[in-house]
Amino acid sequence: MTAPLLQIVHVSDLHFRQRQGPAPVTARWSSRRAPAAMSVFQGMEGHDPQVLGPLVHSIRDRVKPSKDAFRHGTYLAVTGDLATLGDTASADRAERLIRDIASQAGLPEPLVVYGNHDVWPGELPLFAQADLDAQRSALRKRPLHAGDRPARMLGAGRFSLWSLTTVRHGRFENTLALGHIGTDRYWEHDKKLAPQLDVLAAAAAAAPAATEHEVRIALTHHPVIQPRKWPWKGLRNWKEIENAMGAPDPAGGPHRLVRVVLSGHNHALYPPLGELAANVAMRNVRGVHVQLVAGTATQLRHGAPPARVDRDLHQLHCWQLIRFYEEPDGRLQLERIVFVRSGGVSPEYRPVSVSANPRDVAERAYLW
Fold first, then answer.
1. What CA–CA distances, in Å, run from 355 to 273, 307, 348, 363, 365?
2. What is the average pLDDT score of the chain?
3. How far apart are CA 22 and CA 39, in angstroms?
4. Residues 134-185: pLDDT tens digits?
5. Which secondary structure element, helix H or strand E, spans residue 333, and what is its range?
6. Mutual angle of helices 88-105 and 52-63, in 10-degree steps
7. How many angstroms separate the CA atoms of 351 and 238, rounded?
8. What is the CATH number of domain 3-366?
9. Closest to 53 (Cα-Cα) out of 101, 93, 107
10. Lowest-confidence range among 57-61, 82-86, 129-133, 162-166?
11. Could you tell me the pLDDT band of residue 211, with boundaries at 50, 70 and 90?
């Protein structure tokens, strides 16, 4: 019989935006001609107010009854882009929402990483007059974002959760939504910090012997995978980081430096529905981390809904439940259940089926 170890509620890309704030780009008509422009306009949209209540209720109703069944606890992880324009009012509302989710579901303080939109100075960075350095430093003083990266956000039995920053703070790179994992240059310019994965590896090597079998889970905004649809929006050094995360455990344990990465940013589910087992098996053979990406939880869609819903749920409101179980033979099993917003006047987030059987909502894969 499998033993339930850890449960993570994974939410991403809330994109809160005050209604009285600066309006989105006005020349929307041009997006009908240029797909790249459409991507920019979609990124400027704010949240859909209709889905906030259903999001809270779906997480509360699904998670609260099961949270105590997991030996090492249940936690809420939010992987960036809480606000669209980075303004304080929008960030405040987003943080109140995620704290309300945690409170109603009976969960501890949320685990949060910031995204590229969270450091916007209230407008598109490319044309902003404000200093992005000042904006990101102000963000870093907020309780949910405090600390250098990487940060060991949680130790839960054999699991640990780490936050890594992927956000570029230059005006041009941030406008293009590019990501990079290197040195965390977030605070003062004269503060000397080592590359984030070097710090993580050093911390793992210095860990007590009791944690030599530690399973490290990283929270990032940009996924650590090869960008495909819009290459300029991805992690620039994804291959370098993938190799570094796949290095042998410096603590001498059987696992890699980082075993699982939870991310957002792309507003699309990864792996697509029904492909979790095959994707994890492929990545196990390659000796790299398991990458899980949640789509946007609440951002308002720009333009008409698609005629056909793809299995990556691109731009559809969703959140995912990630669970870890231990088999009697010691193998670690990963389970994913995805909740998608239904249409209609009264939207709901419902678990989506991964097969022809409507009750078949859980995908499972072995981490090794």
1. 9, 20, 20, 10, 16
2. 87
3. 18
4. 777 777 778 787 777 898 999 999 999 999 999 988 888 888 899 999 988 7
5. strand 332-341
6. 30
7. 31
8. 3.60.21.10
9. 101
10. 129-133
11. low
CA distances from 317 to 39, 225, 299 (A): 17, 22, 7
Query: Which helix (H) or strand (E) segment is 138 a member of?
Result: helix 132-140
Condensed to tens digits (0 to 9), the pLDDT of residues 94-135 reads: 999 999 999 999 999 999 999 999 988 888 888 877 767 777
The reply to whether the predicted model has a pTM over 0.90 is yes
Strand-strand pairing, 74-79 and 3-11: parallel
Give the helix/strand (H/E) hosting 102: helix 88-105
Tell me, what DSSP letter sits at residue 243? H
Q: 292 and 270 in contact (C-beta within 8 Å)?
A: yes
Sketch the domain layout of the chain as residue ranges. 3-366
Residues 276 and 270: their CA atoms lie apart, in Å, by 8
